[in-house]
Amino acid sequence: MGHTHSKKFEIIQQEVAEGTHFASALEVEVETAELMVSMQPNVDKVRFANTGTEACMTGVKMACSIIDNSKILKFEGQYHDWYDVLLVSLARNMSPLWAIQMTRTDA
User: Fold this and answer.
1) Are 64 and 86 contacting, i.e. CB atoms less than 8 angstroms apart?
2) pTM (2 decimals)?
3) pLDDT digits (tens, 9 = 90+) for 24-74
4) 29's torsion region: left (phi>0), alpha (psi -120 to 50) or beta?
């Protein structure tokens, strides 16, 4: 189809005409959440986030509140967005630029 296919533009124009950012859930989000809940018997709620950072923050806060613990498991070397709690690294093979950014105190 390519990036400039007329059908894609038509669909995008229809959706953008309805708006691009809302404070409350859209009908399509409700439908998607209901579908996800119906597919997973142990899921009773779904929460959507606007950014990966927001999703990571919410996930960490939820996990810590559910288990009443402040410890979390993070996979070393993986990207966990810009949530400060998840930027910590114990790796010794960090690039010099990353190490400088992580240890600067004058910023």
Assistant:
1) no
2) 0.54
3) 778 888 999 999 999 998 988 888 888 888 998 888 888 888 887 777 777
4) alpha
